[in-house]
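This protein record is not my work; I was only asked to verify it. Take the sequence as given and treat only the tokens as open to question. I have pasted the whole thing underneath without changing anything:
***
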Amino acid sequence: MELSGDCGSGGPPRLRVYLTGFGPFNNVSDNPSATLVQQLAAALGSEQTTSSPRQQGRSKAVPLCFCPFNDPRDSPVPGAVDSLVETAPTQASAVVELCGWEVLEVSAEAATEAVPRIHSVLCRNAQTREPHEADAAKKFVATRETPDEPTEGPTDSAAGMVEEPLTLALHFGVSTHSDRWQLEACAKNDARFPCPDNRGCRPQAEVISDYMPLEACLRSSLCLEPVGADLSHNGFPCNVSDDAGCFVCNFLYFKSLYEGQRSGVASLFVHIPPFSAISLQQQLAAALRLLALLARKGFRQSIGGRSQEETLEKQKL
């Protein structure tokens, strides 16, 4: 599957992203979402070594590429992250600015505290950073393509124009019994935890937002079907899901989608399998391709009936 070009004279498509994973909970002592987020942040140039929240100050421009594997259980090898780095951006590159990353405690209280702060960081970066400062914190994420294959997926009719970068809160969590990625399309206004979270909270059929009815659904503003199709086409097990579960994953995602209606920040939650099902190396490569895909304007929908660019413009007034 060949990606549509968004580059033109305006340069490659751009994305600002804040990454989150989850820490240990119940019988999951080593949460793979925490490891993936830490490795992804390192691949994007983060010098942060701890999982506490921190806004990124600078990173070097390095092109990265998606490398599919024959066996999804292939083990990572020393220098695996470096093997994804090339020396120059390609026409299929996307410029990704890492605004921050952190590993969240698995609790409703931690999610409630984190979401407005994460969206605030993304909005602040989108509105106040000078162009030369943004250039110092960019990464070129390249995707390998097969030139002979037909173009599929959304296209950008405004290629060549300089577009406002997408700002994205990208959340990862583990699905312990899964063997593939699940791109979560929506979250429900329903907190009914099957077990207590890490702070002992166990709500039962309670609303997450008092301003919406129980079980009301909020959907991501991203076009996920072509993204999932692209990853699957390139040999990575992936599907789009309409059920983010009923634990802290759904709670965090609903909070982030709800906050996005005000901030204009897009949100996506990805459930990932254990590394015993799909290796860290392949999941890292898929995450880089995911960022390159989402940077393209054709994969964006409107947020609350308006585009993200319109939302950001209103916030400036």
